[in-house]
UniProtKB/TrEMBL annotation:
Coiled-coil regions listed in the entry: none
Species in which this protein is naturally found: Mucilaginibacter angelicae
SMART domains: START
Keywords: Signal
Signal peptide: 1-19
Protein name: START domain-containing protein
A Pfam family it matches: START
UniProt lineage: Bacteria, Pseudomonadati, Bacteroidota, Sphingobacteriia, Sphingobacteriales
CDD domains membership: START_1 (cd08876)
SUPFAM superfamilies, sorted: Bet v1-like
Amino acid sequence: MYRILTIAFLLFAAKFAIAGPEQPWSLSSDKEGIKVYTRHVADSKIKAIKVECTLNATPAQLVAVLMDIKTCGEWVYHTKSASIIKQVSPSDIYYYSEVNIPWPVHNRDFVAHLKVTQDPKTKVVTIDAPVISNMVPAKDGIVRVENSTGRWVITPVDSSHVSIVYTLHLDPGGSVPAWLINMFAAQGPMESFKGLKKQLQKPAYKDVKLAYVQD
């Protein structure tokens, strides 16, 4: 918003509940190798989002970026702040993020739980990113996102490329105009993934290795 609301409202943000199979995905945007799809979700005014792309990175490099919460504001669309509030392990963290929303709508914030798992046979990495309620007190003037579930599925293609499928469905809470919902649904994911491609090129992630992710 994962980083995920934040890779999240945006992408990020979230009650990222993954939409059911009964509705087909509709291609919303296809630029720079990044495809953004949307589809209707029963009993929700918010469309689900799916992003598909292939990036020049190893699974460890991509996971390192996604779990590097302090740099979230460098690439995740409209992120104002992000910080870890609890670290269970290197692959299991809780983080708080505030999302900048254009005036006159109030900013949103959320706590997301990011947990990384990897299939030992296929090497496919999954990052689940549900939003957690009541872990941090609500703040005046900021609307708390309380319902959200998101997921990254990262599949190795070869030694230097990964295929990504990111799914998100969120309830931003409060009163949100249709134009703002549409902006985040279409523009947010595209801008975040463009930023992700640039973030992966930074020296900090060039030779990264993670004990819990096998390339």
